[in-house]
Automatic annotation (TrEMBL):
Primary localisation category: membrane
Family the UniProt entry places it in: Belongs to the complex I subunit 1 family.
Pfam families (UniProt xref): NADHdh
EC nos: 7.1.1.2
Protein name in the entry: NADH-ubiquinone oxidoreductase chain 1
GO molecular function: NADH dehydrogenase (ubiquinone) activity; NADH dehydrogenase activity
GO cellular component, as recorded: mitochondrial inner membrane
Gene Ontology BP annotations: aerobic respiration
Catalytic activity: a ubiquinone + NADH + 5 H(+)(in) = a ubiquinol + NAD(+) + 4 H(+)(out)
UniProtKB keywords: Membrane, Mitochondrion, NAD, Transmembrane, Transmembrane helix, Ubiquinone
EC supergroup of this enzyme: translocase
Domain of life: Eukaryota
Transmembrane stretches, start-end: 6-25, 67-91, 103-125, 146-167, 173-193, 214-239, 251-272, 292-312
Length: 313
């Protein structure tokens, strides 16, 4: 028990460090996409910039608006970061084997809880902008969780197990990406929408909602929400790599190949943000309910028949 707890703590610390320097990678990447320099004043090439930003945010005065519901308003950011780090229990480290045979059920349960925290952050702020931002974020998250769950089920049908380890081991000889490329593309778009990233960042529509559900947060509260968002991005990159590429390439070690794949998937989030303008909200909803959902259901039905046929043969 102690070894497993220690392994989870190490994974969480590594995830927090990855979040810090992923913010630097995003700022650098967006700047070079726009033919300008990113942060380069603090230290060597701006590398300590995330640490200085963290010190600034955590040392600022925590301003509490008068009309907020005090206790739940303060708790929501802490719980958001806690559940974002809790997902890293699925990481198959040396001492800790990703929650046994029910790891994908844990992912679906914990990722669903995040919807309530986003709603709470907007609701307990008692601000019309925060409430509208949280409602849009919840509607978006719930809609795209449907397609993500069905895509995940279609992958797990091939394995016959709810374990992430079984899904990774199943792809030792053939990636799921090669079996169904279109399913991978729908998963990527659903992941971007689920994490509220551009071009689907309607929860933070600056032109109409100022900053969305986190408009009343500052200092520590904003920093925790910010870290939870980027932690979810990195975890979705890890899960996408494990689901569709088996966690790596056969020609190099699992740890190195997994790092390369997670890095590529993380850069893809930045690349999409730099390339596409913000989508229209009604078109986003039409995309999931009128396009993705019928396609995913057809794929799921086909995979169920195919797996049953293979079982009988």
């Amino acid at each position: 028990m102690f070894v497993e707890l220690f392994s989870y703590v190490v994974s969480s610390v590594c995830a927090l460090l990855a979040v810090a320097f992923f913010t630097l990678l995003e700022r650098k990447g967006l700047s070079y996409f726009q033919l300008r320099k990113g942060p380069n004043k603090v230290g060597l090439m701006g590398l300590p910039q995330p640490l200085s930003d963290a010190i600034k945010l955590f040392s600022k005065e925590y301003i509490k608006p008068t009309l907020i519901n005090y206790f739940p308003f303060l708790v929501c950011p802490f719980l958001s970061l806690f559940f974002a780090l809790f997902l890293w229990m699925l990481y198959n480290s040396y001492f800790f084997v990703s929650m046994g045979g029910m790891s994908m059920m844990l992912f679906l349960c914990v990722s669903s809880i995040g919807v309530y925290l986003v709603m709470g952050a907007g609701w307990f702020s008692n601000s019309k902008y925060a409430l509208l931002g949280s409602v849009r974020a919840v509607a978006q998250s719930i809609s795209y969780e449907v397609s993500m769950s069905l895509i995940l089920m279609s992958c797990l049908l091939m394995v016959g197990s709810l374990s992430l380890v079984s899904l990774v081991n199943y792809q030792n000889y053939c990636w799921v990406f090669l079996i169904n490329y279109f399913m991978f593309m729908m998963w990527v778009v659903s992941s971007i929408a689920e994490t509220h990233r551009a071009p689907f960042d309607f929860a933070e529509g600056e032109s109409e909602l100022v900053s969305g559900f986190n408009v009343e947060y500052g200092a520590v509260g904003f920093a925790l929400l910010f870290m939870a968002e980027y932690g979810n991005i990195l975890f979705m990159s890890f899960l996408s790599s494990a689901m569709f590429f088996g966690g790596g390439f056969l020609i190099i070690s699992w740890g190195l190949s997994m790092s390369l794949l997670v890095g590529f998937m993380s850069v893809l989030f930045i690349w999409v943000r730099a390339s596409y303008p913000r989508y229209r909200y009604d078109l986003l909803m039409y995309l999931i309910w009128k396009s993705y959902l019928p396609c995913v259901l057809m794929i799921l039905i086909f995979m169920s028949f195919f797996c049953k046929l293979v079982y009988f043969l």
